[in-house]
Amino acid sequence: MRSLAVFMAVMVLAAASPARADGQARLMAETCTVCHSPEIHSPLPSLAGRPAGDILRVLLAFRDGSRPASIMDRIARGYSREELGAIAGELGRKGAP
Amino acid sequence: MILSLTRRALLGGGAALLAAPCLSAGAKAASVVIVGGGFGGATAARSLRRAIPDLRIILVEPHHLHVTCPGSNAVVGGLGPLSRLEHGYDQLRSRFGVEVVRDSVAAIEGDARRVRLLGGGWIAYDRLIVSPGIDLLWNEIEGYDEAAAAVMPHAWKAGGQTALLRRRLEAVEDGGVVVIAVPGNPFRCPPGPYERAGLIAWHLSRTRRGCKVLILDAKDSFSKQALFQEGWAALYGDMVEWVSGAGNGRVVRVNAAEGWVETDFDRFTPALANIIPPQSAGRVAVAAGLADAGGFCPVDPATFESRRMPGIHVIGDACMAGEMPKSASSANNQAKIAAAAVAASLAGRDFATAKAINVCYSLLAPDYAVSVAGVYEVAGGRRAGVAGAGGISPLGADPHVHKAEAEYAAGWYAGICADAWGA
Ligand SMILES: Cc1cc2nc3c(=O)[nH]c(=O)nc-3n(C[C@H](O)[C@H](O)[C@H](O)COP(=O)(O)OP(=O)(O)OC[C@H]3O[C@@H](n4cnc5c(N)ncnc54)[C@H](O)[C@@H]3O)c2cc1C
């Protein structure tokens, strides 16, 4: 049920984002790759190749505190569900911006 | 293939650039000049390349390697060599087609849209991105000038000063006191002095007896204060002592020859004094008229375009970004936003800005770190923290939490450097 809602959110956002919001999503997603770098091996997981729905599900769990976190809960709370959906869509689409 | 053959041939020979220092904007492709190849400037160069494949991107930087400040407190504490912090510009040149000019910008002429190089000649631009970091304000603390810094290092720009502070620390003997003088806000890296205190204590606690680290602060509170104080007590007992501004901690005078440091009421003659003086935006930005009376550069928080000179974006430590701290993490995100704004304006497109993040880890010991994070939106004409988001690591956490944060700190460093200079 929940994962279906997440999937729908990603699909709606991916389909309906105007170009303006698209650039905005990319800009927000580009901040993720500082820590989750696609270029290096790191103790922090790379997001490359992960489906958008998976990324969004984890982000929402960080946001509502249901998933234990060190720093991602503090960050995810700064974004709306729609923004997290757009970020996940961007990361999932490209693997990495 | 992002460069034409002729352009590539030009770039292949760095000497060609030096022999012809008068670069002018090409008739076709637009030019963006970037001042400074640190975290802000290098990241901006890469972001611009991602946005516009045929843009002419010229980055002016006097050093052939950038030595990062992040990681430099660990070098002071003896956790690794300085060479680990060095990043070159080869990948910006070869992978991302950035023309890296090894020179300093001596002057910015906003009206003529060109910069003058210290080595002679001008470079014209369509948009300018300025990221020169900070400069130290000599003699704000009476007696603290460049000559004094050779005896009482600041180590607030990494490189020779970092190596000097390390050498001087190694010479501290049993029972020695190390003073760290910390300025008022705003300054580069708000948690940096306190990270340094812990790593100096780490070194001294392992190699000496009866030493002390005394932080003389101009302020009454500091970044991640509760976490630092909890960690210092757990790791070093009462070895690290902090004196607030209200407790007469502000250093007003030093005498490098005699080795003393004075607040309004007390004089200290420590084994080693690390003086972190007040700061301004990099001199080139101040001289160009980009800074206000406070010494830093007011910008539009959505685009980081200067409030004083159109067509010029100021990012990183040099700009006033509201509640965003002066950090490499902030500089990275500001660079991406400014680059996107520049790309949009060159293409005549509308630009919608985005929220920005700061993440900052501080080490208290090799396997003990704490963090602060914030998400910043444009609100009320400035960058303000999003309510309910951000904050510091939990207090009273298990050791494994701090150990994990030390590992994340290493991952953050590797990632943000790859993001700027290439992996
Ligand atoms: C001890 C210490 C520890 C720190 N630790 C962290 C940390 O853990 N995490 C974090 O996020 N931040 C940290 N910081 C802060 C971080 O170093 C700065 O915020 C960051 O470097 C700012 O980037 P910048 O591009 O503004 O300046 P810089 O990175 O300093 O780059 C400025 C560049 O501009 C060049 N330049 C200057 N003037 C000119 C000119 N006229 N012409 C051409 N080039 C010029 C300089 O040579 C330099 O390469 C730390 C700082 C210190 C001092």
Automatic annotation (TrEMBL), chain B:
The keyword Flavoprotein applies. It holds the Pfam family Pyr_redox_2. InterPro entries: FAD/NAD-bd_sf (IPR036188), FAD/NAD-binding_dom (IPR023753), FAD/NAD-linked_Rdtase_dimer_sf (IPR016156), FCSD_central (IPR049386), FlavoCytC_S_DH_flav-bd (IPR015323), FlavoCytC_S_DH_flav-bd_sf (IPR037092), SQRD (IPR052541), TAT_signal (IPR006311). Keywords: FAD, Flavoprotein, Signal. Residues 1-29 form the signal peptide. GO terms for molecular function: flavin adenine dinucleotide binding; oxidoreductase activity. PROSITE patterns: TAT. Residues 162-277 form the Sulfide dehydrogenase [flavocytochrome c] flavoprotein chain central domain. Residues 31-135 form the FAD/NAD(P)-binding domain. SUPFAM superfamilies: FAD/NAD(P)-binding domain (SSF51905), FAD/NAD-linked reductases, dimerisation (C-terminal) domain (SSF55424). Residues 355-421 form the Flavocytochrome c sulphide dehydrogenase flavin-binding domain. This is NAD(FAD)-dependent dehydrogenase.
